[in-house]
Write a structure and sequence with these properties.
alpha/beta, six-stranded mixed beta sheet, four-stranded antiparallel beta sheet, 8 helices, 10 strands, binds adenosine-5'-diphosphate, binds magnesium ion
Length: 238
């Protein structure tokens, strides 16, 4: 069963069409990368999947469930942004568990879930620190902890590594891959970075001007780019 199906999704802001007729399928446990230049509509599509932005047409399904009218809080989707807005006055432990706290999950259960997420991300030793006492990479791990702790059906990442320096970017890329291997949760991952897309994705959708140019596994995209734009953007040897 497909975890995520996007059928004919469109989006316009006034007369500006930013997404036209998007069709995508992501199988259970897959890692779909939306790759394309700035302004091509990646974040808009992610926001529509999360329910943070209404579409102008089309349907979104998770499993059999049509999501169009489901409130973002009821979609069981966790999103990680590049600007990981952690609560500065709360220790890491509470930052990670805050979503569960809001949903009135009992403390014992909450603590266990936070502990498990922290172990997975190797940040157990940071649980009592405040975000201001952490490095950029550590903060990024806390932000991921906050997403993992909810045990979502789907992770959405919007350029989560673009604020990090090159070395840390490689480290966190490996970390995200490891987490995906461990958890098996489906991911939609937005980036404009070809290397990130090719190393992380089981499927890559190359976008331009709100249109998917090619949807395929990384090797196919690299070896058989659908058109000049894809070839140029990927840097494949054609
Ligand atoms: P990407 O994430 O690929 O950089 P976005 O999805 O953020 O692209 O934006 C796609 C297009 O939609 C851009 O042209 C952007 O200017 C436009 N856009 C995004 N949000 C709005 C908005 N709230 N109002 C008007 N135009 C918007
Ligand atoms: Mg964006």
């Amino acid at each position: 069963m497909a975890t995520l199906s996007i059928n004919g999704v469109r989006k316009s802001y006034g007369s500006l069409e930013v997404l036209s007729n998007i069709d995508l399928e992501l199988e259970d446990g897959g890692f779909l990368v939306l790759l394309g230049p700035s302004g091509c509509g990646k974040s808009t599509l992610l926001s529509i999947i999360a329910g943070l932005e209404p579409s102008s047409g089309g349907d979104i399904f998770i499993g059999e469930r049509k999501m169009n009218d489901v409130h973002p809080k009821d979609r069981n989707i966790a999103m990680v942004f590049q600007s990981y807005a952690l609560y500065p006055t709360m220790p890491v432990r509470r930052n990670i568990g805050f979503g569960l706290e809001m949903r009135k999950v009992p403390q014992g259960e909450r603590d266990a879930a936070v502990q498990k997420a922290a172990e997975l991300l190797q940040i157990e030793h940071l649980l009592d620190r405040k975000p201001g006492q952490l490095s950029g990479g550590q903060r990024q791990r806390v932000a991921m902890g906050r997403a993992i702790v909810r045990d979502p059906d789907l992770f959405l990442f919007d350029e989560p590594l673009s604020n990090l320096d090159a070395k840390l970017r490689v480290e966190m890329r490996t970390e995200i891959k490891r987490l995906h291997d461990r958890l098996g949760t489906s991911v939609v991952y937005v980036t404009h970075d070809q290397v990130e897309a090719m190393t992380l994705g089981t499927k890559v959708a190359v976008m331009r001007n709100g249109i998917i140019q090619q949807l395929a596994d990384p090797q196919t995209i690299y070896e058989k780019p659908a058109n000049m734009f894809v070839a140029g953007f990927i840097g494949s040897p054609t």
